[in-house]
Structures are given as structure tokens and as C-alpha cells.
UniProtKB/TrEMBL annotation:
The organism of origin for this protein: Mucilaginibacter frigoritolerans
Signal peptide residue numbers: 1-23
GO molecular function, one term: transferase activity
Domain called L,D-TPase catalytic: residue spans: 50-220
Transmembrane segments: none
InterPro entries: LD_TPept_cat_dom
Keyword Isomerase: no
Matches recorded under Pfam families: YkuD (PF03734)
Entry protein name: L,D-peptidoglycan transpeptidase YkuD (ErfK/YbiS/YcfS/YnhG family)
Swiss-Prot/TrEMBL keywords: Signal
């Protein structure tokens, strides 16, 4: 995760320093895979995921599927590129909104032993009964996946990663508010298995199990994948400015 973040940060600094046009922003990053989630508005909990791969310099759609996001919709989050959307809600801890913006992808996780998940082309960690994600904004471990024993008592609240439900049977850590972590800007954002297509999340992006498995078979850390998550109107408005593909194209 640190190596990927460094690559993205280096590319972004170079871009800002050279003053290149904003239309080259996405293309200036090393990403060769792009996951795009769009919703009808800022308050809806249902959306659609489009997965693209760069081939011969162009984004090619590989597949798409339905998703749900936070039960309160979207709020602008902290990603790898700044997104300017006037009057849009802003993502905060506990607001049940999924982050809008552009984010790199972190660790894959699931209930399976690592030996049974060697097909995943990302770093993988088993969601055991000792794996947690710290959501205490006052903790030095805020917004971090770690083994319970590591943190000892350095947090007052956390999220269990091994659940009775199948929500975290398969998933990905989304790098929202990572790097220079801002306390209170939101934590523990995942892509995971949904409960149903009408059940929103606490801030994650979720989908049917066959869909998240398809994502995990496809996504490859060496391609520096990104997640772009916006309302459909804002995506279409910012598409050319950010160098993003046309939806479904």
C-alpha cells in the first residue's frame, strides 16, 4: 500500500508542478485499471460499477454490475486527486456516506485462508477473529487494518473484520483518507459483499458475491487500480476534465 501511494503521490506532485492541463490528470497516474461507480444523486444508495482496463492507450470496458453504497449516499472524500464539487456534502466519520472522489486500492481480504486465495493479485489478509479496523479518530491506528494484539489498548472503538454475515467474506480496502490521515474524515472504507440490492452500507461500496469475486479475479495491484466514485451528473461533467472514459464505452 505504501509503495502504491508513493507512486501516485510522485505522479501527482509532478503533475501539479508542471502545470499540465487537468484533462491529463488520470492519464498521468500509473493506473491501468479503473473502477467507476456512479449513482443517480448524492442521496441514493444504489449505483452501478463499470470496470475498465487500459489497452493500447485507451480505456476498454471489461464488465459492469449493480452496487449499493452508504445508506445516506455520497460525500466528497480524501483521495489521490482533489475533486472540486461546489455545495456537495463532505464525507465525515459515522455519517453513513460513501466517499466520492478518486481513490487507490489497498489490501484484499476475506474469510478464506491465504493458501486458498492465491488467485488474488493483490496483497491478501485473512479476516480472522483478530483482524480489526480502527475507527477511533483519536487513535494512532485510526483508519488502519491490524491484528488486535498489535494495538493493545490504543483505541476505543473498532470494526470486527470476521462477521457472522458474509459481508466481509471477500473484499478490498479502499484507500480513502490514507497517507496524511485526517481524524474524523472517515475510516474503514471497503468494497465487499452486499446484504441485498436495497440494503445500504455504513460507507462502503457493496455488491453481490459473484460480482465482488469477478472484481477480485480481475483486479491486479501491479496495474495500480483506481476507484472513481461520483454521481452520474458530476462524472459526466468532470469526465473530460479528468481524462475519464465515457460510461459504458
Amino acid at each position: 500500500m505504501k509503495k502504491l501511494s508513493l507512486l501516485l503521490l510522485t505522479a501527482l506532485i509532478a503533475l501539479l508542478c508542471t502545470g499540465q492541463a487537468s484533462a491529463q490528470k488520470i492519464n498521468a497516474l500509473p493506473a491501468k485499471q479503473l473502477m467507476v461507480v456512479v449513482t443517480d444523486n448524492w442521496d441514493t444508495l444504489q449505483g452501478k460499477l463499470y470496470c475498465y482496463q487500459k489497452q493500447h492507450g485507451k480505456w476498454v470496458l471489461k464488465f459492469s454490475n449493480a452496487v449499493v453504497i452508504g445508506s445516506k449516499g455520497l460525500g466528497v472524500g480524501d483521495g489521490v486527486l482533489p475533486i472540486n464539487i461546489p455545495d456537495a456534502p463532505v464525507k465525515k466519520e459515522g455519517d453513513k456516506k460513501s466517499p466520492a472522489g478518486i481513490f487507490s486500492i489497498g489490501t484484499a481480504f476475506g474469510y478464506a485462508d491465504a493458501k486458498n486465495a492465491t488467485w488474488i493479485k493483490n496483497r491478501y489478509v485473512k479476516a480472522s477473529d483478530t483482524l480489526i479496523c480502527v475507527d477511533d479518530m483519536h487513535s494512532p491506528y485510526y483508519n488502519t487494518l491490524l491484528q488486535r494484539d498489535t494495538a493493545k489498548s490504543a483505541y476505543n472503538s473498532h470494526e470486527e473484520m470476521l462477521l457472522k454475515q458474509n459481508y466481509y467474506k471477500w473484499g478490498l480496502f479502499i484507500n480513502h483518507n490514507t497517507g496524511n490521515v485526517v481524524p474524523g474524515d472517515g475510516s474503514c472504507i471497503f468494497m465487499h459483499v452486499w446484504g441485498s440490492n436495497t440494503e445500504g452500507t455504513d460507507g462502503c461500496t457493496a455488491m453481490a458475491e459473484p460480482s465482488i469475486l469477478r472484481v477480485l479475479h480481475w483486479i491486479n495491484a501491479s496495474y495500480h487500480p483506481l476507484l472513481v466514485q461520483l454521481t452520474r451528473v458530476d462524472y459526466l461533467r468532470l469526465r473530460k476534465q479528468l481524462g475519464l472514459p465515457g460510461l459504458g464505452a
